[in-house]
Amino acid sequence: MPELAPVAHLVDRDPQVTPQQMAESLVPPPQFTTASFASYRPDPEYASQAEVRDAVEAFVATPPEPAKRGLFGRKRKEPETPTRSGVYLDGGFGVGKTHLLAAAYHAASGRKTFGTFIEYTALVGALGFQGTVDLLRGTALVCIDEFELDDPGDTMVMTRLIKELSESGTRFAATSNTPPGALGEGRFAAQDFLREIQAMSDRFDTMRIDGLDFRRRAVDESASVVDDVPSALATVTASASGSATGGPARVTQDDFRSVVAHLASVHPSKYVALVDGLDAVGLTDVQAFTDQTDALRWVALVDRLYDAQVRIVASGIPLDTVYPEVMLEGGYRKKYLRAASRVVALTRAETQPRAS
């Protein structure tokens, strides 16, 4: 059985990520390394799951249209209706959208990238808009997971980025819990940016996936809670099989409020590095959120913990109940429910120590 390493603290981690590292990390998360269309298991109760799988597979297999650049790189005349250069998977959480997105990435030929919406906007922040265009130009397929427009700046950036890359021949595949025409609803003055939002959505074929959250096997299942986090961490790591190197399991333990406060000092684009290499995260005295900004930072961290399949051991209230009703009634409802679904899985998962 693996040795339990001295407990570290998440709040002591201050990852530094270079633009090059950000670009190199644009690949599917470990749990989707082998995702394929064949390994996707559609729910027979929801025909749209198999239909969308087949449609995305056909999209990837179909050769792209010629780039809208004429001889000597001159831009061809823009048609009145933009060419649809992407597929957009709209559906609830837990219906396999990310699996299909990763399958598209693996099946696509040529240069390709896979990242969350926030990773692409962070890349623009690090390299500048033109630097990001130059980096991604020539990419055959850009996969964007968790597509969300939470502020006007992101709206303008992603609209311009998709337009520029589409005109040079790049195609897109995206997932979201919100149809493209409704992005930004309830979060900022979306009506002031309808032209930009519409121009972006016109470039996608929207495909709706229906179904139930595969992570919740019972309607009454909630996030697991323990009385003694240190003891539970020791039990979790001791019960896991040894890592490939035989090294100790890597865990952190912090007060929940301290972690939330620490997230304010770390840019969300660095949350991947914040949890890198961890087997389990211990959180004591979990409490409900009172500030929406804190809640949204926590959602971003949960997404990265889920991508890395890091076990969560927590005391206090269940982690899927940290959002008060007033937050669930707002424009970020789907984000909160997705995070709630994911923490249920992470607090109930088996932990396998990672190889170094």
What does this protein look like?
With 356 residues, the protein is an alpha/beta fold. Helix content is 38%, strand content 13%. It is built from 13 helices and eight strands. The chain has a five-stranded parallel sheet, sandwiched between helices. Strand 3, helix 6 (152-167) and strand 4 form a beta-alpha-beta unit. Helix 5 (129-136) runs parallel beside helix 6. The longest helix has 17 residues, at 292-308. It is globular and about 60 Å long. It starts with 18 loop residues before the first helix and ends in an 8-residue tail after the last helix.
Concise synopsis of the structure shown:
This protein is α/β, with parallel strands linked by helices and 356 residues long.
Approximately how much beta-strand content do the residues carry? 5-15%
Write down the Rg: 21 Å
**Strands across the major sheet, in which order?**
2-3-4-1-5
| Average pLDDT level | 81
The N- to C-terminal Cα distance equals 16 Å
Molecular shape: globular
**What characterizes the major β-sheet?**
5 strands, parallel
Order of helices and strands: HHEHEHHEHEHEHEHHEHEHH
Structural category: alpha/beta
| Fraction of helical residues | 25-40%
Task: Quickly count the helices.
Answer: 13
Residue stretches low in confidence (pLDDT < 50, at least 5 long) are: 181-193, 241-245, 351-356
Number of strands: 8
